[in-house]
Amino acid sequence: MPMKKQGKTTKKSTGHPPQKSSKATAPKKKIVSTKSSAKPKEKKLQSAPSTEQATTSSSSTKVKPVALLRGMKDILPQEDMIWRTLMQTAGAITTAYNFLYTETPILEEATLFVRSIGKGTDVVDKEMYMFEDNDGTKVALRPEGTAGSARAYIGHGMQSLPQPVNIWYFGPMFRHNRPQAGRFREFHQFGCESFGVRDAAIDAELINVAYQYVADLGIATRVEINSIGTLEDRTQYTVELVSYLRTKRSYLCDLCKVRINKNPLRVLDCNEPSCQPVKGEAPQIIDWLSETSKKYFMDVLEYLDELHIPYTLNPLLVRGLDYYTDTVFEIYADQEEETAQSALAGGGRYDGLVEQLGGPATPACGFSVGLERVASVLKARTKEEPFAFSDGRTKLFFAQLGTQASKRGLALVEELRKSGLYLHHSFGKSSLKTQLELANKIGVTHTLILGQKEVLDGMIIIRDMESGIQEIVDQRKIVSEVKKLVSV
Ligand code: HAM
After folding, report:
1. What per-residue string of b and e applies to 36-75 under the rule 16 or more CB within 10 Å gives b?
2. Distance 370 CA to ligand 1 centre (A)
3. What domains can you pick out in the chain, each with its CATH number?
4. What is the 8-class DSSP label of residue 321?
5. Is 175 in contact with 185 (CB distance < 8 Å)?
6. Which of 26, 76, 99, 227 is surrounded by the most beta carbons within 10 Å?
7. Phi, then psi, of 100 in degrees rounded to 5
8. How far away, in angstroms, is 19 Cα from ligand 1 center?
9. Whole-structure pTM value
């Protein structure tokens, strides 16, 4: 027993940093002097600070900052305006068209995506962030939002709700692809999905919502559209396509050579220059549509005409995900922007997906907008980098001097907020000069100034930033006074 006790003490005492009390260091000293092996151990402990010590100590170890993962990017404060606008515009248009906000997990069982997006697609074969979690379940970061939405529709019995069930989402997606302009490994989508009704009016409504969303953001776009028919239409077409592609095999890129047997429709999706002439000559799916599918497609186009949505028929448009049936579309910026090459949004009808995932036969249609691509068009537009605090939300600044003014000031700012009036402020700063400089930088029209004297008098100074003229008003009238300034 005594031996055991001593062993325990040894362990504990060597683990203590040197500044511990003499009580604790006494046995340590003893051990150091009697056991030679303890010496280097103790030295090592002293010279290697804990992670916490390393990060907090300014003088000793310099910690290498952790870099962003490739293909990922931060959304920064200077983009505040753009991202708020993207969110608010999504909120406004979905309210107008009665889509209800839904959020599904970022992490799902990998099989959900394999079954919906399909083996043989780039997304499933090459781009999924897939791993086993601690329980050994094969999971994946969602590469898109449609599969999760369909899972939620089935899992929550939404087929018993009045149809269509219209939902929308806004959030991050992950694809481990080769990063390039407009293509990230983490990106954000705003998407809408409509479950339960097959009608050309629904397809047109979804295209319209996607189109108007970007239009509301001030971006002129063009819609590219095609129909890939039903599964039966496609089966016949695929036979024809494969026999054509086999005759052109030697002209195709290596990946497309494999695709001929694996997923021939994907050849029509390929961007490799060598594949373009082969694509151009390929049989077109539109010629293989049944009369019903053709009629459905014509109906969709007629709705688009009614809505004055400009569209181009693109017989090569098949989309990169396997779940589509009939209508498929993509939206491109209609100008010479860097992003004009890549689609801002994509979507289509997917009548087989819900059933394929184990739910009841349920027609569905939807779209997703790539928000980084939209943000980049907006950014390119804005000559000056929009700055976090020059967002136009308010043209007023609140400056305070001293602790009392700070306390009263916070209460006044809150009183104003409750009346819908917002001010810039910087409560951590005490110098008036610094605060006025900041107010000037933001470009406010007026600054409210509260000093010690004003706190005692129950007054507040309002300074016109252009003329420098100051007026003193009663704090009790602050809401009406500020309202006057805002309405000018
Ligand atoms: P998607 O075409 O794969 O379709 O993606 C939609 C949009 O997301 C694209 O048009 C693009 O703007 C953006 N996007 C895709 N990948 C990236 C990336 N790596 N980096 C940046 N932006 C990207 C879908 O995801 C379907 N779930 C759309 C849908 C909804 N279909 C029916 N309902």
Report:
1. eebeeebeeeeeeeeeeeeeeeeeeeeeeeeeeeebeeee
2. 6
3. 77-230+290-381 (3.30.930.10), 396-487 (3.40.50.800)
4. S
5. yes
6. 227
7. -105, 135
8. 57
9. 0.83
